[in-house]
Here is the input.
Amino acid sequence: MAHCGSSAQNAKVQTPRPDSIMPSSGSVDQSMKPVLFEIFGEIWTVQSRLGQGVSASVYRVSSGRAATAAVKEFQADTQGGDYGYHKERSVLEDIQGHKNIVTLYGVFTNNSCMGVTTRCLLLELLDVSVSELLVRGSSGTQGGRPQQGHSMWLVQHCARDILEALSFLHREGYVHADLKPRNILWSADDECFKLIDFGLSFKEGNQDVKYIQTDGYRAPEAELQNSLAQAGVEMDVDSGCTSAVDLWSLGIILLEMFSGIKLKDTIRSQEWKDNCAAIVDHIFASNSLVCPAIPVYHLRDLIKSMLLNDPKQRCTAETALLSPFFSIPFAPHIEDLVLLPSPVLRLLNLIDDSHLHNDEEYEDILEDMKEECQKYGSVVSLLIPKENPGKGQVFVEYANASDSKEAQRLLTGRTFDGKFVVATFYPLSAYKRGYLYQTVQ
Here is the structure.
């Protein structure tokens, strides 16, 4: 599908930051994807297709000045394409500015040489999704036993970020209505999780979408409403779904992250419908041997408060943020730092203690490491602590996450002085504060 031209439609355009954030891999047929888009007078090359739905496809695009972004192109020939575009555009324009919500850079119309006109959103390009994190499996071992789900650090990080997003969204009067692991993505440069895909969102009290939420993350009241709509029964205006549906979905997501189990079949079972609290208790009891007790109880109680059948009794995003679970400091697992990119790279298995106590040798190592690391991108700073925590580890701060990701890819598995390099990412915020985690192995 060759491209001929496009026209901008929105004056509120921000220039995307010139950092490359790697997309999630997509195995969709690439033969029909556009080759390029002309966006605001500049040619952007399509690098890959990130995802494809019924009414829209999402692409990773790059401009000549090395900036990267995502384009969400709504299909012109599918039912509801234009509606989906106008819906998502209007919601995103209304809620811009929160750090845990994807940034909309602008909108444009794409005119292909086939004579097809499509509507497009130019969006911030994000990284790995929670769905991919779940697929990639467990976070290793704890106390010598296998740990089924992700670390408490990762669960807490995701929970806090998405509750912050929901708290803002709900204050603005919106319901997301399609919260699921695929719609929560990690931002490498902002070091936080962000909420995407507002195609089913609506103003509370003015629900203009009949079928909401995805199977497996659908609240009981949404399940009932969808069934009635399918049967052709008209719903009262007052009986529409509320922001409580988002809390239900988040409760399921956090339970899956903690347990490492996809819960779709469990949620369909009669046992779940009869007493989901008992199943939550069972999941936590089976993991209690490998997790610290008090944080586990706080997380369990937080999740249970999100999974109450009566939406009026469910916690709100604001009250959930007051949970004692968020007052407990956790250290990341080493697997977390491999999975979640940041501008800081941490190199392990390189420096012997003997190198640290000879000042001349230490300075030579600093220079050699800086010279080597600069091959992969712009190095802002480099630190090799002489004492614990972090003794003998090499911390390299790059100008952006794109450079650190390239360095991580090329340095991992290389040998220096007969040693295999282990390269993980490291939280920029912790590095800037001089806080070096003793990560859980």
Remarks:
- The chain has three domains: 3-123, 130-332, 342-432.
- The chain has 14 helices and 19 strands.
- The first strand starts at residue 3 and ends at 8.
